[in-house]
Specification:
Blueprint (H helix, E strand, L loop, with lengths): L4 H13 L4 H8 L3 H11 L4 H4 L12 H28 L4 H21 L5 H15 L1
Helix pairs in contact: 1-2, 2-3, 5-6, 5-7
Length: about 140
């Protein structure tokens, strides 16, 4: 949907001066939330983070607790994926391309967990060992 100048001006006002969500703005004007964000970037509007006086989060979670929670979630996802792979192998329903894809996704998740869990707690280390054991056996 093409937006006229008045609609763009109203979107900019809502985006910059109110706490209306990007999704709500998009819905009001019949466009997707990503279209609103793209319009803001294209026109050089300040980001919502800048308007609120905050800086966007970048990099790793800031607190050890947040890092531990993220590491546990990744560990759970890895364990679930390994279980799915085992069931697929036992049933014979997977092809070699499936094995390769699954191995890459598990490798990527393990890499992410290692980055997040560098200064690890005992429970994170136990989780890492259990995943390592599952992969090697």
């Amino acid at each position: 949907m093409a937006l006229d100048d008045a609609a763009v001006a109203e979107i900019q006002r809502l985006y910059a001066d109110t706490k209306v969500t990007v999704a709500q703005i998009g819905e009001q004007f019949g466009v997707s939330p990503s279209a609103v964000c793209k319009l803001a970037r294209k026109r050089g509007w300040p980001t919502r983070w800048e308007l609120m006086g905050r800086s966007p989060r970048r990099g790793q979670p800031s607190t050890p607790k947040a890092r531990a929670v993220l590491a546990h979630r990744l560990c759970d996802a890895i364990t679930k994926k390994l279980d799915q792979m085992e069931k697929g192998m036992e049933s014979g329903a997977l092809y070699s391309s499936d094995y390769e894809r699954d191995a890459k996704s598990v490798g990527s998740m393990i890499s992410g967990m290692e980055k997040v869990a560098r200064p690890v707690s005992k429970s994170c280390e136990q989780c890492r060992r259990s995943v390592d054991w599952s992969v090697r056996s």
